[in-house]
Amino acid sequence: MGNPKAFLTVPRQEAGYRPVEDRISDFGEVEQTLNSSDRRTQASRCMDCGVPFCHWACPIGNRQPEWQDKLYRGQWEEAYYILAQTCDFPEFTGRICPAPCEKSCVLSLSIHEPVTIRENEVSITEMAFREGFIRPAQPVRNGKKVAVVGSGPAGLTVANRLNRKGYEVTVFEKDECIGGLLRYGIPNFKLGKKIIDRRIRLMEAEGICFRPGTHVGRDLPARELVDACDAVCIAIGSETPRDLPVEGRDLKGVYFAMELLAQQNRILQGVEIPKQDLINARGKKVLVIGGGDTGSDCVGTSNRHGAAGVTQIEILPQPPADFNPATPWPAWPQILRTSSSHEEGCTRRWNLTTNRFTGADGVLKGVEIEEVEWTSGDGDRPVMKPTGRKETLEADMVFLSMGFVHPVQDGLIRELALATGERKNISVDGSDRTSCEKVFACGDAVSGASLVVRAMASGRRTAESVDRFLKGCAAFPPAAPTNY
User: In the chain, fewer beta carbons within 10 Å around the N or the C end?
Assistant: First the structure.
């Protein structure tokens, strides 16, 4: 701990965002960076707590106080080395992680000004790439092969960890480019795709084989894959969006959020979309149903299209802005979060449910919504009650952003079960081991949709399980649940 009093004298300083009038016209990353001197000063605020709650809250167990101290001292390479021991892709988490570490920082719990852990993390990583501290590893091969199906954050983590242990790893991806959720689910203004490409090139240089455009079960028979490998890891994510089956759902103009986000990323990638399939909000009155991060991404994308107006509705009540007494630490704080996309222009409303979509000639024209009230039910479980107060919002385009359905018994899982001789489906019950000893699973395919950092934590744990299995060691016990 280089400066034991910095937390008393140095206020939190965030890099902030590019000006709205600048960023709204492009899809470049919105977040700015501090200079190296200011960044080191921010790192000095870390108090090196005796019990570092930031470390406890981090799903991958980052040792924040250790690399904060190295950063403060200007030892950038050592800071990256410590960071890379626990985080496979800090250039991703440093941009898109909601930073549960900061929610548990003592400076957050005491004065609501946590250390800028996430920003410091990405600054360390970018310096490491810039200065050549990151070089391809050359693992000694052990002669065993592992297939990873899916190239999102969980799959990439499994591949990275097992490759460095000496396994010959091949990653199969059904889409045309590697990255999964990182590539097609997160807008470029939050995570530029050149950042993904840079990491993939590094992983290829280290010996990992990537096979994009290969749909296991269709382009490659599951049995052929199982027979060719010593282990298979399922990392297919959780891609089925939760639908809203109300009257008018089939009207033209009602889309799932991921239809918009994935298509926009492909457009920026240079893919030509047929005119009849193009989703563009220019001049449209847009309604986003769902108040989470994906809904916020739809807001930002619609604003960049030039939407006439954007409204986002949420069925839950509006949470307090700074501290919610209903979710005290160590629970995850349910507070109001205003994203860069919201700042660019968005009307936000709460306690609203959607009754039906209205239209003419098969085209969306409006959405009937109704206010709801929340009361305590049995066991203090909230109960929603419609109030009868209804109104119709004009809308030319709706994006459904209400989460994802857990991918229980995905078709690929069934095929792998048959390929491995299982008479029943392979069970995926919340752990990285499946009912077939040769097949493993990780990330959102196991947990349902969750955070990128949690998917990475699952991928790391699964890589250890695969390694232990192939070495003939006992399996890990199930992972302990956590509020974070």
Answer: N
> Scanning the structure block, which residue is given the tokens 């078709």?
411
Strand order in the sheet with 352-360: 352-360, 363-376, 382-394
User: Two tokens at 122?
Assistant: 């990405």
Question: What's the first-to-final CA gap in the chain, in angstroms?
Answer: 27
- Neighbouring residues of 319: CB distance < 8 A, sequence distance ≥ 6: 334, 335, 336
Q: Rounded to the nearest 5°, which phi and psi values hold at 167?
A: -80, 150
Q: Is the peptide bond before 19 cis (omega within 30 degrees of 0)?
A: no
Q: Residues 33, 35, 41, 43: is their CA dihedral positive or negative?
A: positive
For residues 313, 314, 319, 322, the Cα torsion angle rounded to the nearest 10 degrees is: -60
Read off the pLDDT of residues 234-293 as tens digits, 9 standing for 90 and up. 999 999 999 999 999 999 999 999 999 999 999 999 999 999 999 999 999 999 999 999
Residue-wise burial string across 418-444, b where 16 or more C-beta atoms lie within 10 A, e elsewhere: ebbebeebbbbeebbbbebebbbbbbb
pTM for the model stands at 0.94
For the chain, how many helices (H) and strands (E)? 20, 13
Single out the residue of 414, 366, 407 nearest to residue 390, CA to CA: 366
Packing angle of the helix pair 193-205, 257-269 (nearest 10 deg): 70
Residue type, 126: E
**Residue 317, amino acid:** P
DSSP SS3 for 80: helix
